[in-house]
Amino acid sequence: MRRILDIIIIAFLSLTSAACGDRTPTIELESDPTAAVKENMINANRVVIQSEATQIDAYIQRRGWNTEPLRCGARYLVQERGNGSPVQPDDTVVVTYRLEALDGSPFYRRQIDTLVVGRREVTVALDDLLEQLTYGSTAWLIAPSNTAYGVVGDGDQVASRTPIVYDIQEIKRK
C-alpha cells in the first residue's frame, strides 16, 4: 500500500511541477523494501521470547526454585556443589543429563555428551552453565529456545522453539 501511495504522489508532483515548468522533485522511496518484513520478524521473535519467559517463570514458580540467571538468558539452580575444581573454558568434559520439556515430558532420559567447554557444541545455555560449576556438581538448567535448539529444534526429539530443562546429573573430566 505504501508503495502505491508513493507512486501516486510522485506522479502528482511530476504533473504539477511539469505544468509549472519546475524540475521534477526527488522523493526517496523506502531504500530497503524488505524492512517491513524484517520488522515483522523482529516483533514475532519478541512475542515468542516473552511467551517463553512467562512459561519459564511459571515453571520455576511451580517448583519453588530460587534460580540464578546466566549471561545468555537461561536460568539455573545448583542441586549440589561438587568438590572438584571449577570447570574452565577449553576443558574437555563428560556431561550426563536428562532433558525434558517444561511440562515434564522427557526428550532424553539419559544423555551423555563429551564436549569442549566454550565451543558451544551442544547448546549455548549448557555451555554457559558449565563455566559456573565445579566438577562433581549437579544442577537444573532452564533454557529458552534461543539458548537451546532454536527455531530448528535438535532434529530428533526437541521441536522448534521449545524451551528445555536440563537435569545435570554428572560433570567429570574426560
Strand percent estimate: 25-35%
Counting structural domains, the number is: 1
Shape from CA axes?
globular
Specify the biggest β-sheet: 6 strands, antiparallel
| CATH hierarchy class name | Alpha Beta
Number of helices: 3
Examine the secondary-structure arrangement and name the CATH architecture.
Answer: Roll
Order of secondary-structure elements? HHEEEEHEE
Could you tell me the mean pLDDT? 86
Name the strands of the widest sheet in spatial order.
1-2-5-6-3-4
Q: Poorly predicted ranges (pLDDT <50, ≥5 residues)?
A: 1-22
Structural commentary:
The chain has 174 residues and is an alpha+beta fold. It contains three helices and six strands; from the N terminus they run H-H-E-E-E-E-H-E-E. It has a six-stranded antiparallel beta sheet with strand order 1-2-5-6-3-4, with helices on one face. The longest helix has 29 residues, at 35-63. The radius of gyration is 25 Å and the shape is globular. Mean pLDDT is 86; it is low at 1-22.
